[in-house]
Specification:
The protein is of the alpha/beta class and 198 residues long. The chain has helices at residues 23-34, 65-73, 87-95, 104-107, 113-122, 172-181; strands spanning 3-4, 12-13, 15-19, 38-43, 56-59, 77-80, 130-133, 152-156, 166-169, 187-191. It folds into 2 domains: 3-110, Rossmann fold (3-Layer(aba) Sandwich); 113-191, Dna Ligase, domain 1 (2-Layer Sandwich).
């Protein structure tokens, strides 16, 4: 079975490029195989999980747009394992005709986690209370201002996920020390919400 890219389109997809070669790309492989679709991954390491099941591999950093141009030559459409991309560089490729799904415009509000939560809030969807972690000029003391209280969850705005760039912060001293440890990157914090299910 082959897959059509867009309903009512005559374009048949047989090779999907995936920017990223980790566990999520690896999990795509079984479903892709059942659909008669081959995966081509762009990933930095030969040992990344999806390399073992990919029909082809472009060994390069995820944000390497020149490598993504090579990936585009080897597949019909490109998708993403994660949002650790260089959107501006990929936009140049999209304007040259490279097909990305989802479209880059759909990914734009997802790259920065603070902006992502802000967008969800503007749409009226439930989100935890959150605020950008900022510092006044010359003041390296972060301030929790929305009355969130401790503990809070400190998260990197970019390039973070559950196992990276996420910290449970019990008090102001830990917040200051953690932020300093990473040289004050753009972060946000949110209230610690109980998880009742997944």
């Amino acid at each position: 079975m082959n897959v059509t890219l867009i309903p009512h389109s005559t374009e048949t997809i047989t090779r999907v490029g995936v920017i990223g070669g980790g566990q999520l790309a690896w999990m795509m492989a079984s479903a892709a195989k059942n659909l008669g679709v081959s995966l081509v991954v762009q990933t930095p390491h030969n040992s990344d999980p999806a390399v073992a099941i990919a029909a082809d591999t472009v060994l390069a950093n995820i944000a390497d747009a020149i490598a993504t141009q090579e990936l585009a030559k080897r597949c019909d459409v490109i998708t993403f394992e994660n949002e650790f991309i260089d959107l501006d560089a990929l936009q140049v490729l999209a304007e040259a005709g490279v097909c990305f799904r989802p479209r880059l415009e759909a990914l734009a509000p997802l790259l920065d986690k603070f902006e992502q939560l802000s967008q969800l809030q503007r749409l009226g969807l439930p989100v935890p209370r959150f605020e950008a972690l900022t510092r006044a000029e010359g003041d390296l003391n972060p301030k929790i201002t929305q009355g969130l209280g401790y503990p809070v969850v400190l998260k990197a705005r970019r390039h973070g996920y559950d196992g990276q760039g996420t910290f449970i912060i019990p008090d102001a001293a830990t917040l200051k020390a953690t932020w300093a440890k990473f040289d004050y990157p753009p972060c946000y914090y949110r209230n610690l919400s109980p998880l009742n299910g997944n």
